[in-house]
Amino acid sequence: MSATDVFENGILSLIFENANYANVGDATGLRGSTTAGVFYISLHTADPGDTTGTGQTQSESAYTNYARQSVARSTAGWTVASGVADNDAAISFPACGVTGSTVTHAAVGSDVSGAGNRYLNGTASLTVSSGVTPQFAAGALDISLD
Amino acid sequence: MTSLLRPGVIAVEARGELVLLRIGDFRASLEFSTALELSVALKAEARAAKRSAGDDSHRYSTMGALHDAAAEKARPSRFAAKLPERLAAKALRVTQEGALVALTINRTTARMPYQAALQLSQWLRVRGKEARNAAGESAHWSQIVTGEAVAVG
């Protein structure tokens, strides 16, 4: 059984925009979190994979000054359309200091640091060396539900 | 019709305001809006091919385009001599053929499994958005796409 376009957008909107998905079950449907919170975006030097592993620290970049960046779970943080969620504003990581790393993947997770919960990951490549400031421009982090 | 597709020889990259597409030996450049239109057409036909193959699974595909925000932004020329032929949306057609997706460019057709078509669709969307940003366009990609510019079926 395949999912309809409306269902895909509803699920993505619930996850990324914290929007209620009305009429599911009802009174009234799947509710967004009471506290919307944020997602934390991380960079990785290898594919973290689909298994839990060490959560969001799995193969995580450790370039000098690196830190995960937050994106609000709201329509201010993400736009959902046509089965795709993408970031509304640029996501900028700190400028690299002395020690760089080769970033190959990015992930979406729950915590500002530590293992936390890694929800999604995919490819994102950049050679990060001293002075480089990794950034996802608006729309450049793309999550598709197919 | 000729099959252009060879395994592992599809590439998409943003070049300033344009998107470069390579399939085998074939190379072309597209306006970012055309790349986004093609992305939508490929996704629609790939999903039909997926259903035709009896595959009801769903998966999240994540892809990011990282760049160095500190780098000086050179603006590549749209008219550089080395850029390949620029394709108009009317030169493109996407058709589901059973579990395959056929991409016709002018009179040449490349056939690919629906999984590859879904992947190519995401590449085109991500690189199309990159090129959109380079062009200074701020509209969301879904507002740029009409869904009618590239022929389907």
Report what the structure shows.
The complex is a heterodimer of chains A (146) and B (153). Chain A has 146 residues and is mainly beta. Chain A has one helix spanning 5-17, and strands at residues 38-44, 69-72, 78-81, 84-87, 91-92, 101-109, 118-128, 134-145. In chain A, a hairpin with a 2-residue loop joins strand 3 and strand 4 (84-87). The longest helix of chain A has 13 residues, at 5-17. The model of chain A has no long low-confidence stretch (mean pLDDT 96). Chain B is an alpha/beta fold. In chain B, strand 6 (92-97) and strand 7 (100-105) form a beta hairpin. In chain B, helix 1 (32-52) packs antiparallel against helix 2. Chain B is globular, with a radius of gyration of 15 Å. The two termini of chain B are 16 Å apart. At the A-B interface, strand 6, strand 7 and strand 8 of A face helix 1, strand 4 and helix 2 of B. Strand 8 of chain A pairs antiparallel with strand 4 (60-68) of chain B.
